[in-house]
Amino acid sequence: MFSAIARVFASPDLRMKILFTLGIITIYRIGAFIPAPGVDYNGVQRCLALGNTDGGLYSFVNMFSGGAMLQVSVFALGIMPYITAAIIVQLLRVVIPRFEALQREGAQGQAKLTQYTRYLTLALATLNATVLVTMARSGALLGCEPGEIIPDDSMPVILLMILVMTTGVAMIMWLGEQITERGVGNGMSILIFVAIAAGFPGSMRQIWVEQDWRVFTAICVIGLCLIAAIVFVEQSQRRVPVQYAKKQVGRRTVGGTSTYIPIKVNMAGVIPVIFSSSVLMLPSVAMQFNQPSPGEEPSGIFVFLNQYFDGAHPVYMATFFLMTVGFTYFYVSITFNPNEVAENMRKYGGFIPGIRAGKPTEGYLAYVISRITFPGSLYLGFVALIPLIAFVLIGADQNFPFGGTSILIMVGVGLTTVKQISAQMEQHNYEGLLR
Asked: Where is this chain's protein located in or outside the cell (predicted)?
């Protein structure tokens, strides 16, 4: 391992990129602990010490901010507005023909979609900052008394907090783009990885303190086996062979090459888990803002949601699993278009051996996608349930490190980054990161 690290830093160009990336990560983590203007830092720490923040409503969003949200810092919103905006823009490609046309225009169209994503990110950040400041002002965010987090709740202070938190999201976007252009890996993915990894030691320490060493050891062993299984599934793919016919261009014969279409078992990535988690948060949000008055009898729907959608009930787990499976099929259907792939193959003289071009190729690709998505959706549903199962068995919170979105993102980003570093090393000395 040390020899691999030494080979990485032996290349001056790659060394500068890695150091630049580490510098950006340091700035990002420092910003997660700088309180927003108007926030009483000591009051925030007192509220956090009360322990009223555990639960699905805040832990999911707080995980993507690296703990900054519950610190009410300048980076409190984290990367979540950008993730939401990127997903919305991608989904709008199915609804708005203009977005689909931009996607087909190549680099210029993609740059335009990126610009739309930035604008939508700032709009969502403003909305999220308003909600967050309102909850912090009322004490609902950390379960403390009103005014303890924000002593001065005058309108200029509130507007300044919203402005600073929205600017923090813009700053995070800029930092991610700097990593993409001048560092190593995809900048936004790296920042998400860092935000999730920042809470990993605290989660492991919580398990060590609250459980005995046997449970801690068992969790570590199961976690390592789970990481190995996720790496295996994420690297697995179905390769559909494609043959290109020979063409006579002047005196030369071109074409006749063989290639393949790589279809991953998990084509949807972590998006279906985020979809399912976000949708199932809505009942919790509704209960937070519709608490019955003292002495008032709670309504039937309130009792139903409180009983069956608390995160540990089998009905909640079954709903989460089925929604993850359904969203996996939905997301794959909008990101992989068999008709478009078949048309491009026909246009350039490609065909699948044994399958006629045109409609038969489209039907064959749709059949393969449907078959390969089934185990991928079950895999995502199982991994998404691991934090909920851990909550039932050992009382862990939804920041449980081995499972759900956290482990999927960490492993996925880690694999992609290692591949990019290895590719850059091969450009310099023909030897990758891993021998």
From this structure: Cell membrane; Membrane
In angstroms, what is the C-alpha Rg of the chain? 24
Contacts of 422 by beta carbon, 8 Å cutoff, 6+ apart: 432, 433, 434
- In this prediction, residue 123 carries a pLDDT of 92
* Adjacency order of strands within the sheet including 237-244: 258-264, 237-244, 350-351
Domains 1-198 and 202-402 share a fold: yes
Report whether 122 contacts 169 (CB < 8 A).
yes
Q: Which residue has the tokens 């489209």?
A: 362
The answer, as to whether pTM is greater than 0.85, is: no
Burial of 23 (0-12, 13-18, 19+ CB in 10 A): middle
Q: Determine which of 125-134, 271-280, 305-314, 321-330 has the lowest per-residue pLDDT on average.
A: 305-314
Question: Domain residues of the chain, as ranges?
Answer: 1-198, 202-402
Average pLDDT, the chain: 79
CATH topology classification for 202-402: Preprotein translocase SecY subunit (1.10.3370)
422 vs 231, 332, 396, CA distance in Å? Answer: 17, 29, 37
* 3 state SS of 252: strand
Per-residue model confidence as pLDDT tens digits over 384-402? 888 777 766 766 555 566 6
Closest C-alpha among 411, 85, 135 to residue 266: 411
- pLDDT tens by residue, 251-286: 666 656 788 888 888 888 888 888 887 777 776 666
| ∠ Cα 177 181 187 (to 5°) | 45
